[in-house]
Amino acid sequence: ERNQADVSEAKAGRTDLIFLIRFRHCCLLRNQRCILAYLYDRLLRIRALRWEYGSVLPNTIQFHMSAEEVEWFNRYKKSLATYMRSIGGEEGLDLTQDIKPPKSLYIEVRCLKDYGEFEIDDGTTILLKKNSQHFLPRWKCEQLIRQGVLEHIL
Asked: Is residue 32 part of a domain?
């Protein structure tokens, strides 16, 4: 507002204000670039949360997000789900399954929390109790590893 007032005065004939107007304008443009860079970085981090935590964010993370960021996350989640359903045939293709290429199809895991029954593709039901160890298909338990229920034993 002060810059606009000085512009009006400069048009009226006060040429000594031109340098001050230019300086303020450059400061405003710099601040705008910094804010846009911060918002873009935050958007990239929120997008990465979908790949790291899945479609449901923990409350501790969601607490630190604004309403607009939560809304953007939900729209991104829906868009990604629609895309994954559209590729890979009838059931779709879960792109979040193997973030890193697997070295083996089965891995040994230790249960960190009581989770309950867990069914794998062949119909076998496994009881996941705290401190129990299992040899499971990687793709089936990767989400539970990210959620902190299972721990990959190396």
From this structure: yes
Burial 132-154, CB ≥16 within 10 A → b, else e: eebebebebbbbbeeeebbeeee
Domain ranges, residue 21: 1-86
Cα–Cα dist 152/124, whole Å: 20
Query: Which pair of tokens denotes residue 154?
Result: 């190396």
Task: Give the lowest-confidence range in 4-8, 24-28, 62-66.
Answer: 4-8
What the block records as the tokens of 3 is 């810059």
- Please give the distance of CA 64 from its chain centroid, rounded to a whole number: 13
Q: pTM surpassing 0.70?
A: no
Using left for φ > 0, alpha for ψ between -120 and 50, and beta otherwise, residue 67 falls in: alpha
Q: How many domains does the chain divide into? A: 2
Residue 139 lies in a domain: yes
CA distances, 69 to each of 43, 66, 78, 146 (Å): 8, 5, 14, 22
> Do 130 and 70 reside in the same domain of the chain?
no
